[in-house]
Amino acid sequence: MKNSSLYKGSLNTIIMKLLEEKGRMYGYEITQKVKAITLGELNITEGALYPALHKLEAEGLLEVEVEKVDNRLRKYYKLTEKGNKETVNRLAELEEFIKNMQNIVNPKLSY
Amino acid sequence: MKNSSLYKGSLNTIIMKLLEEKGRMYGYEITQKVKAITLGELNITEGALYPALHKLEAEGLLEVEVEKVDNRLRKYYKLTEKGNKETVNRLAELEEFIKNMQNIVNPKLSY
DNA sequence: AATTTATACATAAGAGTTTTATGTATAAGA
DNA sequence: TCTTATACATAAAACTCTTATGTATAAATT
């Protein structure tokens, strides 16, 4: 688990973006997808993921559908209408954040 | 102060990158420079900055030179040799992080 | 002349997020 | 049979940052 501290604070945005794209996902699926996208670099821990999902649900940004697959429980999460709107904002913030960090790493002459 | 939570965990990297570039800077100068680069979006609070500088110094990554300018105290920080080496690593991590986040926001077909 | 803003440092309490550790349970693979 | 993978969950501790507060000088505004 190489997780540098840089990922701190980005978990909610990651979850919401993946749900926006995929429609619905369950917790374990999210961890595997993130691991795949980051080529194993980012491993979301369960201790971070499940409380985050519960909080987003409590805030009315996600809703859950419980299903039993292969005799195992799955909790599928999807964005609510409110969650969809909020995701737009979060992604805009993320784009700004990335731009700002790139400007710091690779400064334009003039600052 | 709009500081989205995305910036959490990036303060040390920002400080080290700026010092690598500028040679030496004092705390207040760092806050102003970051505000300028991010067009006012990221305002580093003193409660975050000063403890961070002290910690980096305690870790041997920064060293300090105190000077009095216009009858006001300034503490100039610069990277130590150890700090220079560590900065290379932190910047590599930052580049990876940015790439990974971009892959999440703008996914390549195939995941 | 008095008040506010800017410069320049600092720390403590509280909030928020994540890691680490632990727990339960089923299915698949070695 | 034992380990790994799947799938959820929570509590304690660690870490980082915000908010609030404090000191002090200089410059700008009212």
UniProtKB/TrEMBL annotation, chains A, B:
InterPro entries from the UniProt entry: Metal_resp_DNA-bind_regulator, Tscrpt_reg_PadR_N, WH-like_DNA-bd_sf, WH_DNA-bd_sf
Pfam families: PadR
Transcription regulator PadR N-terminal domain: residues covered: 15-86
Signal peptide: none
The protein's name: PadR family transcriptional regulator
